[in-house]
Amino acid sequence: MKKLLVIQHDHASPLGPVGERFVERGYDLTLHQVVPESSYRTPGVTTAFPDFTGFDAVLLLGAPWSTYDHALIGSWVLPEIDAVQRADEQGVPMLGICFGGQLLASALGGAVERSASPEVGWYDVHSDDESFVPEGPWFQWHFDRWQLPPDAREVARNDAASQAFLLRRNLAFQFHPELTSDTLRQWLEADGEAEVRAAGFDPEVLLSSTRAREGEARLRTHRLVDGFLDRVIAG
Description:
With 235 residues, this protein is of the alpha/beta class. The protein is built from 5 helices and 10 strands, in the order βαββαβαββββββαα. The protein has helices at 16-24, 70-89, 99-107, 181-198, 203-233; strands at residues 2-8, 27-33, 57-60, 94-97, 111-123, 126-127, 138-147, 153-157, 162-167, 170-173. α1 (16-24) packs parallel to α5 (203-233), α2 crosses α3 and α4 packs across α5 (203-233). The chain is globular and about 45 Å long.
């Protein structure tokens, strides 16, 4: 059985239909949580990352922090960037979601910056290849955005930000294909409600729209994972 390493940066980020599809496609999942729930408000922890090169693929999940906030999370985000760089050098396929996608951008020569157009909720995403990255709407929750690494091929975007890029055996998404209404509820309860209200978004609207869309979004997410497996790993 193939082995997938999942880097879960906080306690409120389950894998949802992304993990479900990897399991359906024959992967055994190893989960490494970086910041325990008890340290959520003081996330400058230390952690011993597993060797990324010992796995068939790596999944980098989201997080509520910024990849460039080294004063807050540099104790682990800098070692993680190093681990990503070593894995890339060895050709280990990596899939990054939101913060995880921004990690890929940072590690592979791009950059991450505060976005002038933060996105929270369901937004359309325009894809160059719907058989690879289906067009949205996809759920977004980000206040940062990446600048593409050199030689990266952007494969999806909208007016607010680049939404997906491919570089060697690495695929990054700015949106959250793993999201379910239960996951969103966890994010809101983990200090997210105050953040989205302060930014002018309505948590109840987010929940109701997510409940209405999660069935169709789950099927699109399965297609995303299939694209990563069939065209990035196998291709």
